[in-house]
Design brief:
Radius of gyration: 17 Å
Helix content: 40-55%
Number of helices: 8
Largest sheet: none
Order of helices and strands: HHHHHHHH
Strand content: under 5%
Shape: elongated
Number of domains: 1
């Protein structure tokens, strides 16, 4: 056991003390980390092929959006389809602040992403999907 708790005690304060993220934020953290590997060309080719950049898929390359580090989020008809990596990965990545997109060092990216995620989790509570929908 890491923390000694009684059966009737809540786990949330113990998780905050250990600096562990709630599950929904942990999933989003892992998605953003995987997208960072795609962005820095350290991911397997099948993942890179799954998520095209806005610049590659734009039919008009002169647009301002072609200069961003954003990825295309495909249209999805069902909530179940939103769980697929080709949808959830770009949704999580595009919701990150711009300064995180520019980091190429994985260790630094992890630290900054975890810090930002902890701040949002502490201020918003554990609301599923809130991390992706909020502006960090």
């Amino acid at each position: 056991m890491i923390v000694l708790l009684f059966v009737v005690e809540h786990i949330t304060p113990a998780l905050q003390q250990l600096h562990w993220l709630p599950i929904d934020y942990r999933i989003t953290y892992k998605l953003c980390l995987t997208m960072h590997f795609v962005h820095t060309s350290r991911a397997p080719q099948y993942l890179s092929d799954c998520v095209p950049t806005v610049a590659c898929s734009s039919r008009r390359p002169g647009l301002r959006s072609s200069d961003t580090a954003a990825y295309v989020k495909p249209r999805c008809r069902t909530k179940f389809g939103e769980r697929a990596f080709c949808y959830a990965g770009p949704a999580a990545w595009n919701s990150l602040p711009h300064h995180l997109h520019q980091i190429n060092d994985t260790g630094l990216f992890k630290r900054r992403l975890k810090t930002d995620t902890e701040h949002i989790a502490a201020s918003c509570g554990s609301t599923p999907g809130h991390f992706v929908n909020s502006a960090l």
